[in-house]
Amino acid sequence: MAVPRVVGVRLGIDVGTVRIGVAASDPEGRLAFPVATVPRGPHAASEVARIASEREAAMIFVGLPLSLAGREGPSAVDARAFAAEVAERTGLVVRLIDERLSTVSATRALRAAGKSARSQRSIIDQQSAVVILGNALDTEKAGTTESVTEVVTHKGSHD
Predict the structure, then answer these.
(1) Above 70 in pLDDT, residue 67?
(2) Three-class secondary structure of residue 35 per DSSP
(3) Residue 23 forms part of a structural domain
(4) Of 36, 55, 136, 138, which sits most exposed with the smallest number of CB within 10 A?
(5) Residue 159 lies in a domain
């Protein structure tokens, strides 16, 4: 069964242990751009939910940090838990998407833009979220969203 075409803003989330990067798309899902860096803490999911509401998001993509071999480690478990919390707080469809090498891609893009390693620290999480969201938007265009992402099930859901 194909995923229906989403209309509206999509968010991309890069979950880290210290910071969470947030990116958004335009309503047509053509472009991804940086939005915010949220400090990791007890209110991080609420802040992401606030951003989603403020931007009238239709869907959220959370990066799932797999190893190069495709295995899940502690960071993936953490991203899954955060995605579930965001899904509960927003009521939106939240999809996990493989984020392997998103930070590497983001670092290269920032370096190419002339940003030093020191100046990258404040925006690398946002740029990683842009990479994650850009990849998600590409899967939508290719019609492969269902095969390359995983829906986070809401508590009480029997899906």
Answers:
(1) yes
(2) strand
(3) yes
(4) 138
(5) no
